[in-house]
Amino acid sequence: MIRTIVRTNLMVPPLLLLIAFGAVTVATDPELERSELAAQRYVTDLEEEILARNNNATELSWAYESNITEEALKRRNEAASRNANFFKEVARELRLYDFNSFKDADLKRRIKKLTDLGYAALDEPKFSQLVDAISRMQENYATAKVCQYRNESNCNFGLEPELTETLAKSRDPEELKYYWVQWHEIAGKPVRKDFDEYVALNREAAQLNNFTSGAEYWLDAYEDDTFEQQVDAAIEQIRPLYEQIHGYVRYKLRKYYGSEIVSEKGPIPIHLLGNMWGQTWDNIADITTPFPNKKLLDVTEEMVRQGYTAVKMFEMGDQFFQSLNMTKLPPTFWEKSILEKPNDGRELVCHASAWDFYKKDDVRIKQCTRINMEDFFTVHHELGHIQYYLQYQHLPSVYREGANPGFHEAVGDVLSLSVSTPKHLEKIGLLKDFILDEESKLNQFYQAGLSKLVFLPFAYTLDKYRWEIFRGDVKPEHYNCKFWEMRSKYSGLEPPVERSESDFDAAAKYHVSADVEYLRYFVSYIVQFQFHRAACEKAGQYVKGDPEKTLNNCDIYQSAEAGNALKAMLAMGSSKPWPDAMEVLTGQRKMSADALIEYFKPLYDWLVKENKALGAFVGWEEKLKCKSS
């Protein structure tokens, strides 16, 4: 199965690829000569049909996610089954060729991608069953609402924006606990049965594709038998730095909320971290920052003062890319994108997402944009996806995806690393009267750490957990407590109240309910620093050992040299294994946290000294706040 249809910072599940626009029969001829030339002709002739199907699949998916209705869901899912049969026939035909013996490496690579059926390997009834299970989980998540704290007459609080903003801004631990519990009750628990069905069919589909489980199937996208070990090594590489920031934050939260709410040596209660899943902690920078007398880097008020709109934010992002000699957004982007939450009452998936429609220059973003600094950075991230689409749109359909799933996410964040620097925000007129002395620099590194660094154990856990489920190492009766055991082990976090196996908290995260692989985000948060270092070198903004040209104060804005180097990597799509693409930009062929650690070294050095001076405990005593059935 072709694995890319919509590359977003969320990613549309692979099953959506298989949405049909009509029944098509693939002609087969038992007398056809199974030569390499014949295979080449067959694959070439398929291209127009595949592009048309991918385009229609994306249109149907866009229609549903932009306006969640039963009719849109029905059209999408019924068509999915029909289209799955088409791709089965393609794969069956190509498997008649001895393509592993072909001399043309590119042809072999294209055929391998076309014979990867994914969920379409299931028979039609089971495929429909799987589509329906995932759709029910996704719809439950998208439409989940809770009642307002201490006002049960208003039960229309959704994740975006009400719960997200409350978790970010409220400092009332009881209110935070209430919303955390309510969201997990409504977004996680109801889909437990659907998830069981999904896991069983996921495993069967993987085995039909000659993988032992869905874990191996997901990992195959990284084209490296040692990749799981590389991931394990990276999490250990960053652990000392993570433990330091964790110990410091716990100490600060204990001072703020008291010892009855935050313990001295245990995990941090997750609801106090400014984010529903504790995946980033930058929303609590105001109460934990190292130097509170120094102004925190936040240009939200200035954006509002200057009358920024969603369109203006995207125009600024587009101008950034153009300054790198990259591609200007096409007119259709502005005509067809959804850049603000519609006020017509419809339900839609509000998470920021970037879409490739497999027609020349037909690229869009769907984002319920808010006028704040966080969304300003998100805009640049999403436009990074769009830029990737535009750079590889000349390639065959099977190559129109990131070199590995993490590359797409990393590219957008490389831009955000530049955009978030004080020097860039000053340059574009959003930051005024900001003095970047040593204390302000530490605050800046600290804010970045609360966003970038603390995310890694979360991202690692979300897929490590699902790999164990897919492999059968975790049984259904232990799903919830195993999740909290891993959150405690790797992140040092705990739920605000005791959980049990009647709960299903993992599914209260979109990617679990929507069948979206999450390792891509972990990979992106590692390799983006490798990309950033290489781009900064090419822009003349970084020289190792030069205190004036550090990795953490680099802005590649207006550097055609950096942009051209990025374009060369992006234009490859997935036509080559990802180490080849990485080498074009960085000269490296392995994922490594070295650049990330270099970026955060000033923060690490300061945290070690500060934690010692404060007497803050570093590390945590693992404990399981979950009752097994």
Structural write-up:
The protein is mainly alpha-helical. It contains 25 helices and six strands. The strands form three sheets. The chain has a two-stranded parallel sheet with strand order 1-4. It has a two-stranded antiparallel sheet with strand order 2-3. Strands 5-6 form a two-stranded parallel sheet. A hairpin with a 6-residue loop joins β2 (353-356) and β3. α4 (124-143) packs antiparallel against α7 (192-208).
* Main sheet summary: 2 strands, parallel
Name the poorly predicted regions: 1-28
Instruction: Name the quaternary structure.
Output: single chain
Rg, alpha carbons:
24 Å
- On the 0 to 100 scale, the average pLDDT is 91
Share of residues in helices: 55-70%
* Major beta sheet, strand line-up: 1-4
Distance between the termini: 39 Å
Residues in β-strands, percent: under 5%
Please, how many helices? 25
For the secondary structure, the number of strands is 6
Shape: globular
In terms of structural class, how would the helical and strand content be classed?
A: mainly alpha
